[in-house]
Amino acid sequence: MAKNWAMCVGINQYDNLSPLNYAVRDAEAMRDYFTEVGFDQVYLFTDNSPAITDAGKPFNSQPSFGSLRRFLRVRFEKAFLSSGDNFWFFFSGHGMRHGEKDYLLPCDGDPHPEGIEETAIPLSYVSERLRRCGADNVVLLLDACRNEGGSKGIGLGEEEQQGVITLASCSPSERSYEIEALQQGSFTYALLEALRIQGVGNCATVERLEQRLRYRIPEINQSHRKPKQNPYAVVEPAFKYHLILLPNRATLQDVATLKLAAFEAQTEGNFVLAEQLWTRILAVSPADAQALKALRQIWTRSPDTQSFKPVSNLTEDTSSKSSPSLLVTPSRSPQILTKTLPGDIKLEMVKIPAGSFTMGSDEYDGEKPKHQVKLQEFYLGKYPVTQEQYQAVMGKNPSNFKDNPKNPVEQVSWNDAQEFCKKLNQLIAGKDFRLPTEAEWEYACRAGTQTRYYFGDDAAKLGDYGWYDENSGSKTHPVGQKKPNDWGLYDMSGNVWEWCEDPYHDSYANKPENIKNNGNTIWSSSDASLRVLRGGSWFFDSRLCRSADRYWFDADFRFDLIGFRLVLSSF
Q1: Strand 137-143 to 164-168 pairing
Q2: Which of 297, 390, 478, 483 is deepest in the core (most CB within 10 A)?
Q3: Distance (Å, whole) CA 109 – CA 459
Q4: Looking at the domain 336-568, which fold is it?
Q5: CA 432, 433, 438, 440 torsion: positive or negative?
Q6: Which region, left, alpha or beta, applies to residue 163 given φ > 0 means left and ψ of -120 to 50 means alpha?
Q7: How many CB atoms lie within 10 A of CB 519?
């Protein structure tokens, strides 16, 4: 499990600044919260906190310049946490900006321009020392800028702290206020309120916490007749907006968002970032099979797979000694089989001719080696299953994007798709609807081609054929609005990823000959927890919409990027 450590600083009494009323109370309340939720270690620096004795020689916990600098220098000299862990730093007190730098003022800090550099602590120094702890996630919570003057421009600025999540109580030139009725600063009150939310609306991620504070703090100030105070966040790098701060409150959607970011980093060859993200997922879900599998792939990759190099023109290897592909001549007038579902909803299936093709590509390890596969005739859905079709069979619509009943159904797991097929086969007697095998899917997608996409090698043309990150507007679209492939199949690239029947295999290296000779047969596995996805989606870029691209998710995983398409194997 991930470790969580924290350091809380609260200062009421200042030598050279006006006193504060509730800064110590704020720090103690944060200490109590961190302890309550099971943090491994919490350091407290307040006007009257006891000495810190966990690291050998005791540290003075008075929040003076000398004590704070010494603790940050000595305690953080060597790493004591690791990737997947978190360190939280909370400061409640005076802060100011000077010479384009942000400073936290200790109890003996001097705000005069000639004294600040000698008696205040640069925020950049704090974050640099905290990063030495070894945790790959450092969170700064700053309830500062509580100066006593009326002039503007002396609050903390928006200085970016490398590799750190910063949540500040107010924007530059604003002031951070204490609320007498609450006996707390409004930032700390709202922060604790947000962190304690359970169920719907919880603030488990950086993004939701920041959004909650952004509207809640002005609301609190207004209700207590205090001036405007707008909190802000500086998150570096930007992907940390999706990081999960509170694992026990995280939703499946939170984990899914992290998984997608990890997958994208791994696909781009950014293995350092991918490893961090997959490790983060394990911190939330220690037994996650997908994260474990991905990390094993990263740790055991060979030197020549350190980065992926896109191939601009994929052509069939004519020097191969294996049997040549029997490329079937595309039919310009596909044979359609139409079935009627309850509510007079039509289900159209396209006849796919028997033949053979070269499956896979040389672009990515998971798509190697290219190999010949033979298939018998079958029918494949003209479109992905739509929301109205799913509603007609299942009596419900789990989708996120419900603006059009002809949008592809999403938020369906592989298990959900199996249940759909079971009920559909009960409705239409004598038929055997199921998910396509991975070979059936790629064979039908290629429609007799051997290029990167079924329309050629030029990714710039993808917008004519599918919905992906550059044209989707971050949502699904009604099926059939783009051009079909040469066999009359629509949305084979983009819109939603599509489940296949097969369990996921790391590559085709060990594919049995009997499966190659009959691609209509499922390639089984002793580990069937991960199932294949094909086709890309509205969220991802053109690379993931290639005909050979493949990925996987847990069989019970639901997300608004994922749907499915049907096969009919008995006519």
Answers
A1: parallel
A2: 390
A3: 59
A4: paralog of FGE (formylglycine-generating enzyme) (3.90.1580)
A5: positive
A6: left
A7: 26
Q: Judge if the upstream peptide bond of residue 247 is cis by omega within 30 degrees of 0.
A: no
11, 48, 125 from 27: Cα distances, Å: 8, 12, 21
Phi, psi of 218 (to 5 degrees): -60, -35
Give the CA dihedral 499, 500, 502, 504, nearest 10 degrees. -50
Q: Which residue has the tokens 């005069």?
A: 112
Q: What three-state secondary structure class fits 116? A: helix
Q: Are 346 and 388 in contact (CB under 8 A)?
A: no
Inter-axis angle of helices 289-300 and 252-267, to 10 degrees? 20
4-175+230-236 folds as Rossmann fold (3.40.50)
The pTM is what? 0.63
Task: List beta partners, residue 336.
Answer: 350
The count of C-alpha atoms lying within 13 angstroms of the C-alpha of 471, restricted to the half-sphere facing its C-beta, is: 17
For residue 289, the SS3 value is helix
Q: Which tokens in the block code for residue 97? A: 């900006």
Angle at which helix 23-36 crosses helix 186-195, to 10 degrees, equals 10
Residues of the chain with CATH 3.90.1580.10: 336-568
Q: Mean pLDDT for each consecutive 10-residue tract of the chain (571 residues)?
A: 91 93 96 95 95 83 95 92 90 88 92 87 94 92 64 47 84 87 95 91 90 94 91 85 84 82 83 86 80 83 38 30 38 81 96 96 90 96 98 96 96 97 92 96 97 96 95 95 97 98 93 96 88 93 92 88 91 53
d(CA 107, CA 117): 15
CA 554 – CA 262 distance, rounded (Å): 15
- What single DSSP character describes residue 317? -
Beta strands 562-564; 497-503: pairing state: parallel
Residues forming CATH 3.40.50.1460 domain(s) in the chain = 4-175+230-236
Distance CA 179, CA 169 (A): 14
